[in-house]
Automatic annotation (TrEMBL):
One GO molecular-function entry: glycosyltransferase activity
Residue ranges constituting the Glycosyl transferase family domain according to the UniProt record: 172-323
Record key words, sorted: Transferase
Originating species: Peptoclostridium litorale DSM 5388
Domain Glycosyltransferase subfamily 4-like N-terminal: 15-166
Signal peptide limits: none
Keyword Transcription regulation: no
SUPFAM superfamilies (alphabetical): UDP-Glycosyltransferase/glycogen phosphorylase
Protein name: Glycosyltransferase
Keyword Ubl conjugation: no
Length: 363
């Protein structure tokens, strides 16, 4: 048995980067040093947890949810609550104060939260005064937090990590099937900006024969009908394929010559790292922490603004060029800086720094 008890908690385990971070960390934690318990409000990723017997399904009722978490913390002698959302960090602090329990709080920041939009001062005060360590998943996030007034000693950067064995490299060199394959992978939400992606493809098809290009949209979400309607309105239903939810992201990414990201806002998207890992050329808008992993012209290609013409020009240059050195450098970058082992080791070091070995202070 491990010597430090961790409760890793999140809102839901639905499809998404923050949720994938959750189950991957749980899968790879050092079980000789840490007992990790997990809790969430359900979702399709619950079956991906390695130790399902340590998972607790949280009720939707706020009071019932609070009581369930309090019992886990008390009964399992939890040393650290690792909150995968600000909402869970706030709830954990409420439990700690209301019931006089002694544990530390680690919070991983994935998204822009309601509290920081509502009151930046309250947000910063909470991170500085109530959270023992905030994990930034990219340097851009760390710089932003510092700029807002979060104390340097309260922040640690731990980059997201990819399972490089699962996301195997394929030096496809622009290969098989129906011409050049372009893909976009992610939840069908407004911030992922699929409408703009479709506009880019419309312009590209004016420049290039459609038989030369295969376009796939992978993922599901609330905007599926809107996206399908936009494709139909532009008469592109024979040229852009909607795949819905996919069972194997590594297989999908390996089939793509190029992976695109055109989001209106991003933090540190896993799809970019995963595309780099498998050997797909990455073409992305330059937002958030994407520049931490993609060096323009070296490990992928970045566009500074949402300009259809610039994206189309970049796609044509990629189609006509030799990108073998780019995809090999991208794979090496993932192996050297963004492997999941580095993410897990960095997180475990934070646990040890917060609590100290053999803490078990709630007994």
């Amino acid at each position: 048995m491990g010597y430090m008890n961790i409760l890793f908690v999140t809102d839901q385990l639905i499809v998404g980067g923050a949720e994938a971070y959750f189950y991957r960390l749980e899968n790879c934690i050092d079980r000789e040093s840490f007992n990790m318990y997990t809790a969430a409000g359900g979702g399709c990723y619950t079956h991906r947890l390695r130790e399902g017997e340590r998972f607790t399904l949280l009720p939707q009722n706020p009071l019932a949810r609070t009581n369930v978490l309090r019992r886990i913390i008390r009964d399992q002698k939890i040393d650290i609550v690792h909150a995968n959302s600000l909402r869970m960090a706030l709830l954990s602090d409420l439990i700690r104060r209301a019931y006089g329990l002694d544990f530390k709080i680690v919070y991983t920041k994935h998204n822009v939260t309601y509290l920081e939009k509502l009151s930046e001062n309250q947000y910063v005060r909470f991170l500085n005064g109530r959270v023992d360590k905030t994990i930034a998943v990219c340097e851009a996030d760390r710089r932003e937090l510092l700029g807002r007034g979060v104390l340097d000693e309260r922040i640690e950067t731990v980059f997201n990590g990819v399972d490089t064995e699962k996301f195997r490299f394929d030096s496809k060199n622009m290969r098989r099937g129906k011409g050049f394959s372009i893909g976009i992978l992610g939840r069908l939400t407004r911030e992922k900006n699929h409408g703009f992606f479709i506009d880019i493809m419309e312009e590209l098809f004016k420049r290039r024969p459609t038989d030369d290009i295969s376009v796939s949209i992978a993922g599901d979400g609330q905007l599926r009908e809107d996206i399908e309607s936009r494709i139909k309105k532009k008469k592109l239903q024979g040229s852009i394929e909607m795949l819905g939810m996919i069972d194997s992201p590594p297989e999908f990414l390996r089939e793509m010559d190029m992976i695109m990201l055109v989001s209106t806002r991003e933090k540190f998207p896993m799809t970019i790292l995963e595309g780099m890992a498998v050997g797909s050329v990455v073409l992305s808008i330059d937002r958030g922490g994407i520049g931490d992993c993609v060096t323009d012209g070296e490990t992928g290609y970045l566009i500074e603004e949402h300009d259809i013409g610039k994206f189309c020009n970049a796609i044509e240059n990629i189609m006509d060029g030799d990108n073998s050195s780019v995809i090999h450098r991208a794979r090496r970058t993932v192996e050297e800086r963004f492997d999941i082992a580095s993410m897990v080791e960095g997180t475990q070091a934070i646990y040890e720094g917060c609590a100290g070995k053999g803490a078990n202070r709630n007994g």
